[in-house]
Amino acid sequence: MRANFRMQRLYITSPLGAGLVHEASAEQFNYLANVLRLEAEAELLVFNGRDGEWLARVTYPTRKKIALVAVEQVRPQPEASDLSYLFAPLKVGRLDYLVQKAVEMGAGRLVPVMTQHVQGRIGSVEKIEANVIEAAEQCGILSIPTVAAPRKLAEVLADWDGSRRLIFCDEGDAGQNPLPILSRITERKIALLVGPEGGFSEEERRMLRALPFVTAIPLGPRILRADTAAVAAMAVLQAAIGDWK
């Protein structure tokens, strides 16, 4: 069932079921009462990443409190995406964009990796998680991707589950077309790795290419910015072997 984009959507943490009540936080109260100016009996959509999407009704137990009463489920909870997305942190602003697009494109797990040429940093995992939730609210997504703590690329690879195919975008690859390479992948468990603005180092490229669970792909004849490459790679992967196919 497709999302209803005509109604406001709100992520909450409370369980959802017919008649269950969620008391809005101070931040949610300000958003619902002062930004959206919702009155008593107004309706919106709520989700918690576990119980599907529900139609909820606004009530005001007091002038300074809002309670949301779940009325009926409008969409069931889908199976969470198994696609892992590994990325080198970018500078502020572009990192926000990258995270939002990864969520929109179907990533189920976001894994920041620190590479030799990385130029950005992760100041707060909580900030990324908030960005993930905002993207999910705006795009009708019901399953909230998880966010891992940042780790060095070598450490992530050392602990890797070899049954999950890791596809990395290699700007040094001599080819231009990733589709023939992707068409040969048979594993169902997939991860995508996109490097930093400065690209992977030669040492990292050799390390990745030496691993049996890694597949390198090119992204065409043009030089792409890291955030653009992320969107392009996700689109190609989803179309070739992901949930677009």
What does this structure look like?
This protein is an alpha/beta fold and 245 residues long. The protein folds into two domains: 9-75, Hypothetical PUA domain-like, domain 1 (Ribosomal Protein L25, Chain P, Beta Barrel), CATH 2.40.240; 84-240, Alpha/beta knot, CATH 3.40.1280. Helix content is 29%, strand content 24%. It is built from seven helices and twelve strands. It has helices at residues 26-35, 94-104, 125-139, 153-158, 179-183, 202-209, 226-240; strands spanning 9-11, 21-23, 43-47, 53-62, 65-75, 84-87, 109-114, 146-147, 151-152, 165-169, 190-194, 214-217. Strands 6, 7, 8, 9, 10, 11 and 12 form a seven-stranded parallel sheet that branches. A five-stranded mixed sheet has the order 1-3-4-5-2. Strand 6, helix 2 (94-104) and strand 7 (109-114) form a beta-alpha-beta unit. The chain starts with 8 loop residues before the first strand and ends in a 5-residue tail after the last helix. The model has no long low-confidence stretch (mean pLDDT 92).
